[in-house]
Amino acid sequence: MKANRFFRILAVAVIMALLMVALPAATVSALTGTIAITSPAGKTGPPGTTVTLSCQNFTASTTYSVSFGGTSVTTGPTGGGTFMATFTVPERARGNHNVTVTTTAPDDSNPETFTVTPAITLDDSTGNVGDTLSVDGAGFTGSTTVTIYYDSTSVGTDTTNANGSFDNFTFTVPASTVGDHDVAGRDATGYSPDVSFEVSPEIAISPATGAVGDTVTVSGTGFAASKSVDITFDGSTVEDATTNTSGSFPATTFQVPSTSRGSHTIKAEDASNNDATATFTVSASITLNPSTGSAGTIVTITGTGFGSVRPVTITYNAQSVATNPSSVTTNSAGYFSATFTAPAGLAGTYVVQASDGTNTATASFTSTTDATISPVTSAASPGYVGMPVTITGIGFTPSGTATVTYALTVSESTTLDSEPINTSGSFTAVFEIPPSLGGTHAITVSDGPITKSFTFTMESTAPPTPAITLPLADTKLKDDTFDWEAVADGSPASNPVTYDLQVASDSSFSEASLLLDKTGLEGTSYTLTDAEKLESTNEEAPYYWRVRAVDAASNASGWSEGSAFTTGWSFAFEGWVVYVTMAVIALVFFFIGLFVGRRSGGGGYYY
Questions:
Q1: What are the E-state strand segments in 188-227?
Q2: Residue 318 has what DSSP assignment?
């Protein structure tokens, strides 16, 4: 019993001793440090904000840790138990987040509340219309859609992560006036604070390099709204424009004025003195007028952008050409003008080059084939068989052969001449027009690869109808010979008219009734051959004949009127026959009278 009582007393003593030790320790651990957010004053801000804490009543000479929303954001020594701590707000979604401080003592602080608000940042604060801007956002509602606004106009959307952030959203700066413009983000809860983007004037030119006289296009953005704009080239006004309500002016063109080579300033300035510039580089350039032609064409060459007061050498197909003036020199602005004659040679495109020794420019001249024909004929002024014709050609294949052909008909041609082409590509062909039908005919000259064609108009006027002389109508054919009068049609004597003669058994001159059909007779008469002699006939069944004229171009006159005639022996009581008959009758009567008279006288003797 005594032992049990002793152990009870001993147990109470141990418990009391432990309570004596534990009571001071519990009192110490129950001590609480105090913290206060001293910056920022409103205890709000987006992720990335620097926060300053004032910490007091912490255990000295230990280590503290600051937590933001349960995540340690900074640590450090407590010193004497009173200290200042700073940290940067981490990525967190919009709303309130607790800030606490703990130490290794351990000590616990009272919590402070920090409100995360949304914010955006731009990769650039200034730029031009058309630039690409990158936007980052933080402090928005987590996993939600954020709309980006430029001056209250939506330019796109992005989606935040769980911590309310998004990165690298890009958009193109829309047309807007010079000065500051607001960019903001908005989720379902509200907008972020505006961020300013400053728009500067800018001009674009096209091309940026060229020659005097070239057309340059200028357009501008980022100027003041609805203002007149003065466009200058090296300070001299070359054009004007007007901006729209967005501060832009449309494409405006001007021609580069006469100036020296090198860099020149194009400037656009609005009425509010907002301006932008661009550099245009003038290079050496030449122009040819005309740029196409045959050998012998007079070409004007104009150069700009060359050195000041410099001699200029001009070549054609890498060969020097004579110019007018013979010595070409640029003026103080690097300009020159001269002429030269396009050399003879094969048709094609050739390089013309001008150089002042330092600056060189080229242009292309297209040499064309040319050929001329003389004389030129037409329906109003036709040609004729045997007409001498000349064709002159340039730009043909040097040292080749030019062949001239003449189309007698649609399907038949004849070669009239072949002439050698000289080393300069020139030739001359002279020939005479062959017999051919009246109307148009193609004359072609070709060296193989190059062909030129002309139209020759052959005269189509028929000669007059010849008049028949023997035999006349209703008379007898004498000596088997037909005669007619000659006709002329105006052709040269070298192209005499020929005649066609027909004899028929009836006046219709049908093919079945034709007894003689002679063509191409050169004289004005024709005597029948023994084989062609006609059988005798009389007036009841006469023959008929007619004649027509045909010139060298096969133009035929009308037929003479068919004339009736007879052939063979027949008695005709006319002319000398009449006189002989009368003489014979007179003699007969004379002798009868003489005989009667003698008979009468003899009877008297008998009386």
A1: 195-199, 202-206, 209-210, 215-221
A2: T
pLDDT over 90, % of the chain: 76
> Which CATH code for domain 285-368?
2.60.40.10
- Residue 453, beta-bridge partner list: 444
* Rounded average pLDDT over 200-228: 95
CA 571 to chain CA mean position, Å = 94
Sheet with 262-270: list strands edge to edge.
209-210, 275-282, 262-270, 228-233, 236-242
Topology of domain 468-566, CATH: Immunoglobulin-like (2.60.40)
Backbone angles phi, psi at 482, to 5 degrees: -105, 135
Which two structure tokens, joined as six digits, stand for 167? 């990165």
Q: How far apart are CA 137 and CA 117, in angstroms?
A: 11
Return the residue matching tokens 């500051």: 180
**Burial group, residue 380, by CB count within 10 angstroms (0-12, 13-18, 19+):** exposed
- For the chain, the domains span 1-29, 31-116, 119-198, 202-282, 285-368, 371-458, 468-566
CATH superfamily assigned to domain 202-282: Neocarzinostatin-like (2.60.40.230)
Segment 413-428, tens digit of pLDDT: 999 999 999 988 899 9
Q: pLDDT, tens digit, for every residue of 515-532?
A: 999 999 999 999 999 999
